[in-house]
């Protein structure tokens, strides 16, 4: 029987500074938007398409992203596609998608680095692939549940197209 594959690899630039928040249990979560360009030759000349995707990094990886990344940073992201569904204020069903980062490589100088420092910085976190969809409390080791079960504190977004977490 064939196994499903949920694997994302993308290279792009941050469209704004990353946002660091914490779950009620104190786990850091850093989210940022990434723009990825696709260039190809169309019938009437060169074409450039831009795809935007939200990336979420957790725990130590989240703290490193918040500390070193900024608008315009070029990154390579490896992770898995996740979806969240909810009802908006009018009762309509909404869905959003984001990449849950497993590995992020900084392809441009991190915030605060010397201007000539262009070394690639690899920030990986050890993730048990069998448990990729669950999170544990760092102190007790107790499972926290899936991403959809963990609300984030301090979310000021109110638009209907923003998930309620």
Automatic annotation (TrEMBL):
InterPro entries: NA-bd_OB-fold, Primosome_PriB/ssb, ssDNA-bd. The keyword Transcription does not apply. CDD domains: SSB_OBF (cd04496). Keywords: DNA-binding. One of its GO terms (biological process) is DNA replication. The keyword tRNA processing does not apply. Gene3D superfamilies: Nucleic acid-binding proteins. GO terms for cellular component: nucleoid. Residues 134-165 are annotated as: Disordered. Pfam families: SSB (PF00436). GO terms for molecular function: single-stranded DNA binding. Residues 136-165 have a biased composition (Acidic residues). Homotetramer. HAMAP family: SSB (MF_00984). This is Single-stranded DNA-binding protein.
């Amino acid at each position: 029987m064939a196994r499903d594959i949920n694997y994302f690899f993308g290279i792009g630039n941050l469209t704004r500074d990353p946002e660091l928040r914490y779950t009620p249990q104190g786990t850091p979560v850093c989210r940022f938007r990434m723009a990825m360009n696709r260039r190809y030759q169309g019938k009437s000349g060169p074409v450039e398409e831009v795809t935007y995707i939200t990336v979420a990094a957790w725990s130590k990886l989240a703290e490193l992203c918040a500390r070193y990344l900024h608008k315009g940073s070029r990154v390579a992201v490896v992770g898995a596609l996740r979806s969240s569904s909810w009802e908006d204020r009018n009762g309509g069903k909404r869905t959003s998608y984001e990449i849950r980062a497993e590995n992020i490589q900084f392809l441009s100088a991190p915030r605060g680095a010397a201007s000539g420092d262009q070394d690639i910085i690899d920030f990986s976190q050890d993730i048990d692939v069998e448990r990729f969809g669950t999170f544990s409390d760092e102190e007790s080791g107790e499972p926290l549940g899936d991403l959809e079960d963990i609300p984030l504190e301090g979310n000021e977004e109110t638009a209907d197209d923003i998930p309620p977490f």
